[in-house]
Write a structure and sequence with these properties.
Helix content: 25-40%
CATH superfamily of one domain: Valyl/Leucyl/Isoleucyl-tRNA synthetase, editing domain
Largest sheet: 6 strands, mixed
Oligomer: single chain
Structural class: alpha/beta
Number of helices: 32
CATH class of one domain: Alpha Beta
RNA sequence: GGGCCCGUAGCUUAGACCGGCUGGAGCGCCCGGCUGAUAACCGGGAGGUCCGGAGUUCAAAUCUCCGCGGGCCCA
């Protein structure tokens, strides 16, 4: 959602605010220490990892569609960099050309047609296009920096850079030399507003539902019926504006057709299957006079819908057989206008119909059709239909809902139109494309043979030329004698020009066309084919053109080496992934990339599709400023990003923020304690015999291995999940169980082991987390290593990736799992008995533990459970004990393991008198601690304590007076049974197992 | 109209390729605990027609087919 309130980032104590503050700290550190640039310069002699940034079109602010690929790319690049690879290249890139940019400039002037560009001047127009692109680059850099996406923004490639364009020219010459670049007159999707054809991958972006007229004509057959009655063909179309261009009618030779008569005696012919559509009610259906195959209908002559518009020839206005006629729509008799349909054009070619195109380039009728001259083609529908109606040619009229392509930029309906167009003959490369795709690792896998593979198999040609201005000009010149030269570089152009090119030669239009170029053979002035090329060709050339290949020597570009990793949205299957593959196959005969990661499309928090009209499109910069980059990144990694997934502040809060809060709280715990004890952090795994610590180290080793393996496959999802569950385990088990060790007064060996295990774990975890959540990882590193962002401190992101240094102890992990099972069981028993954890119980008996568990823990098992479960005695007993009725329900709560391997447990139901008093003492201690906190005393502050109590409480306090003093850091504890004074300093506590007491607390 | 993908608790997801314990977690909810990690932390519980139906099988969330819903792509 785009919220109404700007940049109101929450702050203060919320987890969200803490994360934002943390990220700010990290950003300042990175900037101050120039960390990003230093990281990019790492590993200059390491093994090569090839990458190319898919250049976004820099003509607008980044949107969600730009966020996801960047988050996924960054994960892969950070991981490989930490593992010592030299990344080629880390250049940022900007896609500068194309219709989007032109449209932006046109809009700024309020122009509606191409003519206005010419009036304004192509030179100034191009200059504005350039300016428009550059205007957004700064915004994009801010966005990327905030996200933590590190690329080389200082040395970015721009597809409008003459050097880049020269490489593109070079490649086009190669294609031409291989017979892969050809001109033809073909039907292509055409936007009359933009006055240019579009490629299929562009058209693909603009389909939507629309309602068009549906008209059925009756076209009079010359000669009429056999008995000379008037006879008509019924012909259906949804584009009445193409009817003046009608040159033939197509029939399906194998299909069944029928004739029927209407009341006036006229005979009508249509496909048999169409009868039901036109006469849904059986009772209305006319009587069929004759039934025959379409082939019997071939060769008839009819009167065109608009006689006199098009000259008749011996080929025109006849019925022809054609394979594309179907029985599913219309009448089975298809209106053929070769200028305006792919099938129509092909049929026209075959039988020699010629073409008739009465539109000017902007889609308005010329005087070839007088009744609609000057009209926009869609506006002619009504006028022409009305005329047909008046003349009695219109038989039925209604509307028709279907999906139809609209221009992806200007949102006007496209048309299919026969034009002169330059093509990349990709159909000739079909088998090679398929072969080069076969070895690519697609994620998700099904794309390889599914959507992408199917598209390649279609083997459609790529319409390359655009009748526009702001793009790489098609470098093809021809002379009046028909001689054609494809120019593959500026030097070659200079030689045709006859002298050096002007300094700072700009190959864009219009300067390129102002250059005098002479035909080397006929010595006549040559003119350039007046097109620019599809901007997708530019970006598809980025892997080599960013290096100015082959003009620049000594670049790291290798003609034999595909990219190791690319990541973009699934929409790029027909976009960048396609154009890169075509170009690399044509030029270098190899695949363009080894591993492709494709993310799905974003839905909003409610699972609804994001669309501009709904206003639910997330602004990623805003989202990051509110939620933080790491929560945003984690939310993506933890989602099923290869499919469509929800993305919004709610989702980020629920999925991305949560695991980070837990982790940062663990860190907070560590730091709070570390500030007191100052045990040096351990960069290597501590040697310890503590089973809890050894368990954590083993879990860490397992996680490290799993995360690394996942990231090797660029599987951020599994990696993030593995980290998330380790964080969970640290927090819910290791830390909780280790707390008593941190409370110890002195730095005992156990306490040291806890510190070292935790610091080592957190430092390693920081490394594992670095590719995914670089900010939190840095925070973890700085705070645990003790570097604390001081000037000159090392950054985590300049350090190598952590390697597991401890072998896993699977036996111990299995044993711990069983211990956790016991803990869970006994907690349930306590719940059942209604005895809170603070109240100690006498005894716990356990049976059915695996042999391995007992071996792994030796005699440490009992103390571990004793503390965790607050029982005085833990006995391991033989399973037989649980079979009889030895445990009376009066005394014990019981859980019998039912499945094999499940332990049984019996717990004392009630505390003894003695334990009850101990429990009461603990209740009092807890309240004293709360009071200390209320008074904002430091952890280490000593106090004097006075307590007033009666009955059981008084007895409990007397019995545990010393212990209370120790727990509360009290130099003295005085007990009174008198009435307490009613001064405000005396704090009253109620409801301690039904009783109340007072306390007075002073700093000693 | 065609192709590809997805559908597991209110939400995010594991399990599916390779059929087999009682479908597992986290968040949220309810109950409780803890109280110097504190807008934090911990336990327990409720909550699932594994989208529906049919088939294969001793056995189906998992394999097959047919629907329904959603997404993306194509015509």
């Amino acid at each position: 959602m785009t919220p109404a309130t700007p940049k109101a980032a929450p702050s203060g104590g919320t987890p969200q605010g803490q994360v934002l503050a943390m990220e700010q700290r990290v950003l300042e550190f990175w900037a101050r220490e120039n960390v990003a640039a230093r990281a990019l310069a790492l590993n200059s002699d390491g093994p090569v990892f090839r990458f190319t940034e898919g250049p976004p079109t820099a003509n607008g602010k980044p949107h969600v569609g730009h966020l996801f690929p960047r988050v996924l790319k960054d994960m892969g690049l950070r991981h490989r960099r930490m593992k010592g690879y030299r990344i080629i290249s880390t250049m940022a890139g900007w896609d500068c050309h194309g219709l989007p940019v032109e449209v932006e400039v046109e809009k700024s002037h309020g122009w509606t047609s191409k003519k206005q560009i010419l009036e304004y001047g192509v030179g100034p127009f191009a200059a504005e296009c350039r300016k428009s692109v550059l205007a957004y680059v700064e915004t994009w850099q801010q966005f990327s920096r905030r996200l933590g996406f590190w690329l080389d923004y200082e040395d970015a490639y721009f597809t409008m850079d003459p050097k880049f364009m020269e490489s593109v020219w070079w490649s086009l010459k190669q294609l031409h030399g291989k017979g892969l670049l050809e001109k033809g007159h073909y039907v292509v999707p055409y936007c009359p507003r933009c006055e240019t054809p579009e490629a299929t991958h562009e058209v693909a972006q603009g389909y939507r539902d629309t309602t068009d007229p549906s008209v059925t004509l009756r076209l009079r057959l010359v000669g009429g019926a056999p008995d000379a009655r008037p006879a008509y063909l019924l012909v259906w179309t949804t584009t009445p504006w193409t009817l003046p261009s009608n040159l033939a009618v197509a029939v399906g030779p194998e299909m069944d057709y029928v004739t029927f008569a209407e009341e006036d005696g006229s005979e009508y012919t249509l496909a048999e299957s169409a009868l039901e559509r036109y006469f849904p009610q059986e009772k209305d259906r006319p009587k069929v006079l004759a039934r025959f195959k379409g082939s019997d209908l071939v060769g008839r002559t009819y009167e065109p819908p608009f006689p006199g518009i098009v000259a008749s020839t011996s080929e025109r206005f006849h019925t022809y057989p054609a394979p594309f006629v179907t029985a599913e729509e219309g009448t089975g008799l298809v209106h053929v206008a070769p200028s305006f349909g792919v099938d129509d054009f092909q049929l026209g070619q075959e039988v020699g119909l010629g073409v008739f195109d009465p539109l000017d380039p902007s889609g308005r009728f010329t005087d070839l059709v007088p009744q609609v001259v000057g009209k926009w083609f869609k506006d002619a529908d009504k006028i022409l239909s009305e005329e047909l109606h008046v003349r009695g040619v219109l038989w039925r009229r209604s509307t028709y809902k279907h999906t139809y392509p609209f221009c992806w930029r200007c949102d006007r309906p496209l048309m299919y139109r026969a034009l002169d167009t330059w093509f990349v003959r990709t159909h000739k490369l079909r088998d090679e494309l398929l072969a080069n795709n076969a070895g690519v690792l697609w994620d998700p896998e099904h794309l390889r043979d599914g959507r992408f593979g199917n598209f390649l198999a279609e083997g459609k040609d790529w319409a390359l030329s655009r009748n526009r201005y702001w793009g790489t000009p098609l470098p093809i010149w021809s002379c009046p004698k028909g001689h054609t030269v494809v120019v593959g570089g500026f030097e070659e152009l200079a030689s045709l020009h006859g002298r050096p090119l002007p300094a700072n030669f700009d190959p864009h239009r219009p300067t390129v066309d102002e250059l005098e170029v002479t035909c080397p053979d006929h010595h006549e002035r040559m003119t350039r084919e007046p097109y620019v090329i599809d901007t997708w060709y530019d970006s598809g050339s980025a892997p080599f053109a960013q290096f100015h290949h082959p003009f620049q020597s000594g670049t790291p570009f290798d003609t034999g080496a595909p990219l190791d990793y690319v990541a973009e949205g699934i929409d790029q299957t027909r976009g960048w992934f396609y154009t890169m593959l075509v170009i690399s196959t044509a030029l270098f005969g190899r695949p363009a990339y080894r591993h492709v990661l494709c993310h799905g499309m974003a839905l909003d928090d409610q699972g609804k599709k994001m669309s501009k009209s709904k206003g639910n499109v997330a602004d990623p910069m805003f989202t990051m400023e509110r939620m933080g980059a790491d929560p945003t990144r984690l939310a993506i990694y933890l989602s099923s990003y290869t499919e469509s997934f929800r993305f919004g502040e709610l989702t980020i809060r629920q999925t991305g923020l949560r695991p980070l809060t837990t982790l940062l709280n663990v860190l907070e715990f560590y730091r709070t304690n570390w500030d007191v004890d100052r045990v040096p952090p351990s960069e290597t795994p501590p040697t310890t015999s503590d089973p809890l610590d050894r368990w954590l180290l083993s879990r860490l080793a397992g996680t490290a291995e799993a995360v690394d393996l996942s990231l090797e496959r660029f599987d951020a999802h599994s990696a993030a999940q593995a980290i998330e569950s380790l964080v969970q385990e640290i927090s819910t088990w290791w830390l909780r169980r280790s707390r008593p060790r941190f409370w110890q007064e002195e730095v005992t060996p156990e306490k040291r082991s806890a510190y070292e295990t935790l610091s080592y774990t957190l430092l390693t975890l920081a490394g594992l987390l670095a590719p995914l959540a670089p900010f939190s990882a840095e925070e973890l590193f700085q705070k645990v290593s003790g570097n604390d962002y001081r000037t000159g401190a090392p950054s985590l992101h300049l350090l190598p990736y952590p390697r597991p240094q401890v072998p896993r102890d699977l036996a111990l992990e299995g044993a711990m799992a069983q211990v956790l099972q016991v803990v869970e069981t006994v907690r349930r028993l306590r719940n059942e008995a209604g005895v809170r954890s603070r109240m100690p119980l006498e005894e716990l008996r356990i049976a059915g533990l695996a042999e391995g568990t007992l071996r792994a823990f030796g005699d440490r098992l009992a103390p571990l459970l004793q503390e965790e479960l607050n029982v005085k005695r833990v006995e391991l007993t033989p399973p037989e004990e649980f079979q009889g009725s030895k445990f009376s329900p009066e005394v014990w709560v019981l859980s019998r393991g039912e499945k094999p391997g499940e332990p049984s447990a019996a717990l004392s139901r009630k505390p003894s008198r003695e334990l009850f008093l101990e429990g009461l003492a603990r209740e009092v201690v807890r309240r004293v601690q709360m009071t200390r906190k209320e008074r904002k005393l430091a952890i280490s502050d000593q106090i004097r304590l006075e307590l007033w109590a009666e009955g059981d409480l008084a007895e409990a306090l007397r019995a545990h007076q010393e212990w209370i003093a120790k727990e509360c850091l009290a130099t003295e504890v005085r007990l009174s049974t008198t009435t307490p004074p009613t001064t405000p300093e005396v704090r009253r506590w109620d409801d301690v197992e039904g009783a109340s007491f007072h306390l007075l607390l002073e700093k000693a």
